[in-house]
Inverse folding.
């Protein structure tokens, strides 16, 4: 005999049945997916930031516009405690216009950009080139007396490249699985010493060229195909180089060097209009949050650097990450999420010059290290992580998870545990609702070079998403082609949806991600090594 | 019992032993390889042509310099009957300088080139853009009254590309083998009618824009990654367009269109300094030869077009082919080759505007067609091959083989028989000494778009080499990156060596390549077709 149990369980009885953690708010995950994929604002946000504002070189006039936009945008989204946290950086630099031509032996427009943080030309410079490959101080002597009145080409020309892999690609699961391995830590104390010695090279080169009477210097673009970058690093206040520096497209640079080898040295006309911006030497992190219901539960956080290079509009580096963070916040506000823990959103400043913004956040809220006082921003970037002992600040225990995005606009395929293997199980559960969107793999491996690094290095649970590489490194990273139209809007709908979902799961989980130990001074990985006297 | 035959055959006896054709001059093949690979001048020739002279747009001032260089070079090499054969083409056009900027809503240098054969700006034009996608005359009406005072963006912007194959590649043997197949000929008489209708579109568009009061027009580059071309075709004397035309890099063009969609129309500043060259409307083929020992044996010929686009230096298109032809001549002179048949070397003019140079050669020496008199160069390019009957001239029977090179600087992997299957056996034997250099495959397939086409179309034995594609179409063909450093010198040592060897074998072979029949009027391949009234 069978009895059909229709209508026999009341709503009150249902509410009393215990349910697994993830299913506690089953409709919230569905709402996130619906809002993030179906009502996405990523294109509108990216258009405003990338097309309308454009490049965001740290402390440039344009970056100030972007900072104001971001604060306003976070407020519009209804985030709480929206604020700019300043930190000492150095001067800004604006690129206004440039024009570089060969005027002899034949007239030719050259693809070129000024190098960031070099002075303009004050009108137009016309001079002959001299090809003088210089890579270190030891090379200066060979060129003494040969550079007066010249435009000095300092890079070896080399030859055209043969790009044998597809510029645009997605990862297969096997490639991702290979990242499920931890690198042994390694530390060479000599390398820190070498970095100290080398770090003044740019200004020493400038001083050498100036003292020899050179009128400007030129380096070759490090990518072929007429791509340009204009990268340069001498941003410290008061350390103004004397000479205008330019980057010339590889094809145009090599042509100059060949012509100089077989005939009269080509003459160039150089014009760069640039401007130093010294009225505020602080850079800023822009922070907002969705406050949690439990003030003692701490916070989870997502971040992306907001600054960019100036050669194009900072679209995939890192408009993509910035827009994803803002859109994840928008999605969570749109579905009315009420997380237990606070969810904090950070747009970091000055990442491109050495992760200065995230380091400043950690120094302010998380950890102090002996000997850090009095170090300049550049010295902090070089030395801070090697100072011991390291002492946590009160804010240290409040951070439960940090998620970073800075690998272009490719969709999320999973997440790097960054060596924190104890965290993998929880991250797997948080990602699990998004397996059908292609973001399911949790791998142990480490990644470097962006803003999760300092968090992770001080033992905090900090992670970076696995992303499809697309054409990020092939042709966009720091180039003059890093524009809105190389963002992939469908990928960004996915990244913002997954980020929103993971943040909410992390904020509501009964467990928090496990920390790693407070760092100790690293072990020299080759203590028995000897070096030649002149070995680098 | 055995007898050792040492010393029993005299030199005189050896000379009397008949040997197979190829081994007749065994040392000549070895000498060609030695000279071509070990003493190559391809880099020097390419440097002079590509770096020092640069772009060679038909009838431009620079092309005149290049023509003089080629004549001088052929004479230096000791070629006989060096000559320029002129033919009516139209006007030249010089590109001198340009500068294109966005001045609002934010200042930005844009990557751009003027479109060839459009007038300069006479100083600087500043105006707002209007995005008005126009692809044919039927679209004009929709924009009437909306373009006055504007810079008109005529291309649909589309979105960023996703290049999923390697830019630089070599062929595997299987890919080459697939070309061993003949396409059925097909002919649609309507297509000729459509081409007649469309051929005045460029000037009609110019006239429409002028009559509406537009100040300039802009098209989008057809390649992403900041590559530019500047291609344009209205080269006929007396048909000067009114408005300056520009090509803007895809990324920069799309940014303009997005900004125009969401805010005030961007303002641009446009400057182009260009010049029409009308003092000689003839273009020229440059021809030289190594005279054969048998005046009745006719000639074999290698050719490559010598003109280029202007966006860069015409290196892989077709400096590569031009240098290979000259170097093959140099190799043959260096080894003292005394061929039976004359070996003729041709550098064709005006290929890029429609194979005008090779067509002029054929009309002058090979074949006349009823109704060709009085047709303009552009009409000849469009119509000549459809005129019947076709009557060979006396020179027709003199040509025994033509070999063309116009697919970049990739090494030869074999040769296309271009449907002339009767020729395959001979070509295989001529290529056989070069199998170890990778050039051994003879495939039946057809190729189009360059100077062997008219020879082959009138029944002459004319062929194009199979070449490794490298990055020719991915980023170099007609772009601003077509520079010397994307030539591959090792490949060009091989192409010139193989070309020299094949020419000498063809010149000395007892057999000549078989012709195909004199062409007859083609069969309509779909005689039962119907069309909608407005169908293209």
């Amino acid at each position: 005999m069978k009895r059909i149990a229709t209508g026999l369980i009341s709503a009150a009885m249902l509410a009393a049945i215990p349910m697994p953690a993830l299913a506690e708010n089953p409709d919230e995950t569905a709402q996130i997916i619906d809002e993030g994929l179906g009502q996405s604002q990523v294109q509108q946000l990216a258009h405003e930031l990338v097309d309308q504002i454009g490049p965001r070189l740290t402390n440039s006039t344009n970056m100030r516009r972007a900072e104001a936009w971001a604060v306003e945008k976070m407020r519009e989204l209804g985030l709480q405690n929206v604020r700019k946290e300043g930190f000492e950086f150095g001067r800004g630099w604006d690129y206004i216009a440039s024009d570089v031509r060969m005027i002899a032996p034949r007239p030719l427009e050259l693809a070129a950009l000024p190098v960031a943080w070099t002075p303009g030309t004050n009108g137009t410079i016309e001079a002959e080139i001299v090809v003088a490959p210089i890579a270190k101080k030891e090379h200066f002597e060979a060129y003494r007396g040969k550079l007066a009145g010249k435009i000095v080409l300092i890079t070896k020309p080399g030859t055209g490249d043969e790009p044998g892999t597809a510029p645009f690609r997605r990862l297969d699961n096997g490639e991702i699985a290979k990242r499920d391995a931890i690198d042994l830590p390694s530390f060479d104390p000599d390398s820190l010493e070498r970095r100290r010695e080398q770090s003044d090279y740019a200004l020493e080169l400038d001083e050498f060229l100036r003292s020899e009477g050179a009128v400007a210097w030129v380096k070759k673009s490090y990518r072929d195909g007429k791509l340009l970058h204009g990268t340069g690093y001498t941003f410290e206040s008061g350390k103004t180089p004397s000479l205008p520096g330019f980057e010339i497209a590889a094809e145009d640079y090599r042509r100059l060097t060949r012509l100089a080898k077989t005939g009269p040295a080509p003459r160039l006309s150089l014009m760069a209009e640039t401007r130093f911006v010294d009225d505020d030497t602080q850079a800023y992190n822009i922070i907002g949050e969705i406050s949690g219901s439990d003030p003692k539960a701490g916070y989870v956080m997502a971040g992306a650097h907001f600054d960019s290079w100036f050669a194009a509009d900072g679209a995939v580096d890192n408009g993509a990450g910035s827009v994803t963070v803002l859109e994840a916040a928008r999605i969570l506000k749109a579905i009315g999420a009420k997380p237990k823990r606070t969810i904090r959103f950070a747009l970091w400043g000055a990442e491109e010059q050495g992760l200065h913004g995230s380091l400043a956040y950690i120094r302010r809220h998380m950890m102090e290290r002996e000997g850090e006082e009095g170090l300049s921003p550049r010295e902090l970037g070089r030395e801070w992580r090697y100072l011991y002992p390291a002492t946590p600040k009160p804010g240290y225990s409040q951070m439960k998870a940090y998620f970073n995005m800075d690998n272009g606009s490719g969709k999320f395929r999973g997440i790097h545990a960054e060596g924190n293997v104890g965290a993998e199980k929880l991250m797997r559960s948080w990602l699990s609702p998004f397996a059908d969107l292609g973001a399911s793999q949790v791998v142990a491996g480490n990644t470097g070079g962006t803003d999760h690094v300092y968090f992770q290095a001080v033992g905090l649970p900090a992670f970076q998403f696995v992303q499809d590489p697309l054409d990020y490194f092939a042709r966009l990273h720091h180039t003059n082609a890093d524009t809105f139209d190389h963002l992939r809007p469908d990928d960004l709908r996915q990244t913002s949806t997954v980020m929103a979902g993971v943040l909410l799961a992390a904020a509501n989980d009964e467990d928090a991600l496990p920390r790693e130990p407070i760092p100790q001074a690293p072990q020299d990985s080759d203590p028995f090594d000897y070096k030649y006297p002149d070995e680098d």
In short: Chain B touches chain A through 55 residues (CB under 8 Å). The two ends of chain B are 86 Å apart (CA to CA). Residues 1-23 of chain B have pLDDT under 50 and may be disordered. The first helix of chain B runs from residue 11 to 16.
